[in-house]
Amino acid sequence: MDELGARAAALVARRPVDARLRRVGTSRAGTPLWLLSVGHGGRQALVVAGPHANEPVGGATALRLAERALADPRLCEGADATWNLLLCLDPDGARRNEAWLSGPYVLGHYFRNFFRPGFLEQPEWLPEGAAGATLPETRALLDLQDELRPVFQCSLHGVDVGGAFVELTHELPGLAQRVAHTAARLGIPRELGPYDTLYWPRLGPAVYRIPPPHPGDLAAAITEAAVESTWFHPHRYGTVTAVVEAPMWGVAAVEDTGRPADADAVLRSVSHTLRHDTRLLEGILGRIRPSLDTFPEAARLLRPVDDYLLVGPGLADSWDPDVQDAGERRLPPLDTARLTALRLAGRRVALRTAGLLHQLVTGSGHDPSGALPELDRLIDAWCADYRDGCGARWIPVARQVEYQARVVIAAFELAGRYAPVRSHSSETGWGSQAALPMHRE
Q1: Rounded-to-10 torsion of CA 269, 306, 338, 196
Q2: Is residue 107 packed enough to be buried (19+ CB in 10 Å), middle (13-18) or exposed (0-12)?
């Protein structure tokens, strides 16, 4: 976090006429939220880095975008654009991940130092609507959106294990081809059936349409975009929002469109594994919880643990062909890419939970139930499954950043070809296009 701010300040000192840095809010812990703005055009682009605490690539991408915008007149003067780059939306959470940021970049080190706050503490989400938003980080972003009324907004995310994909609030024809070209040049796998987009419309390979928010319970909100979000808030201004996901560890099978011999057998295995792992972790939590009373950070770490343990069994049931009933949403056709994504997602829930439990035990300073050796064994075994069973391989940071920056610029350029109807009364701001029906796959 300190390096992000220092590099942004150095850029402004070098180019004071074309670049500005201002504080647009303060985090819950008192950390400034810094906005780096480049250019003087009338069309505002807003890029939000660090909405998820464990996804650091966006901060480096924001700095790369600022350098590109300063170096290429087509991105500022030629496009009548100003680039507004929010360096990190959740700086408090990001600091909690700094223990793994200097390496080594191995899965066990990452998960043992992983942190992501509970769902209700993640600043992109609006479970009570914009009017009910209480987190200062969320309020700062909402105020910024209302001030800038951006024509284009981008949220920068990082997939820990899997592949690259993009989610859009409005179709941008041609983006899938740009993503494919960029990913191929940089050797980054595209995720052709992400768990996040399992029931969402597909706009092209690795590009998906974000459906409007819909009512749902907490478990649904944690596992899909079932609540209002800052992605949709600026639609009244005609904003196109892109969520750009770049992987840290790539898995080649997430772009394998071949059909497995027995998809149901794979689903049963993934579902049964997630249920088994959840039960194991619930038992460990029950053993360590009584010894956490004097650990001041316990509540912060327990909230995401409780979230993951809440959603695990429901996810397993929704994927299990022996449990699904006729009234539930049916899974889309399952190729190897989708089945791999589900396997990665189930393992991710368990590994994140185990990593947080590991921090609870080590942070409390005592382990009367002997949970730490068991957690170490589970984390090592599950990381080995990612590495050896799924073929997860580290993607160098420079390639993650270059991929994400190129895709953001491509989406910005394509968004500029559209002239959305700006309306203060319309929910979407897209005029007649907003009335088109949207079908889930």
Answers
A1: 170
A2: buried
Closest alpha carbon to 340 in 423, 271, 251, 418: 251
Residues in the chain: 441
Specify the DSSP element, H or E, that contains 181.
helix 175-186
| pTM for the full predicted model | 0.92
* Residue 203 identity: L
Quick: pLDDT tens for 230-261.
999 999 999 999 999 999 999 999 999 999 99
Identify which of 348, 295, 433 has the alpha carbon closest to the alpha carbon of residue 52.
348
Whole-angstrom distance between the N-terminal and C-terminal Cα of the chain? 40
Element (H, E) at 116: none
pLDDT band, very low/low/confident/very high, at 421 (cuts 50, 70, 90): very low
Range list of H helices, 121-257: 136-148, 175-186, 218-223
Counting DSSP H helices and E strands in the chain, the numbers are 13, 12
Of 211 and 86, the structure prediction assigns the larger pLDDT to 86
* Beta strands 165-168 and 240-250, pairing class: antiparallel
Phi-psi region of 36 (alpha: psi -120 to 50; beta: other; left: phi over 0): beta
Residue type at 282 in one-letter notation = E
Q: What is the SS3 assignment for 15?
A: coil
Q: How far does Cα 58 stand from its chain's mean position?
A: 10
Per-position b or e across 302-340, b if 16+ CB within 10 A of its CB: bebbebbbbbbbebbbbbbeeebeeeeeebeebbbbbbb
How many whole angstroms separate alpha carbon 353 and alpha carbon 361?
12
Q: Which of 79, 87, 86, 142 is nearest to 415 (CA)?
A: 79
Per DSSP, 190 falls in state B
Sorting pLDDT into bands at 50, 70 and 90, what band is 426? very low
d(CA 204, CA 65) in angstroms, rounded, equals 25
Query: By three-state DSSP, how is residue 52 classified?
Result: coil
Q: Residue 184 carries which side chain, given as an amino acid letter?
A: A
Picking from 363, 129, 386, 132, the residue whose alpha carbon sits closest to that of residue 251 is 386
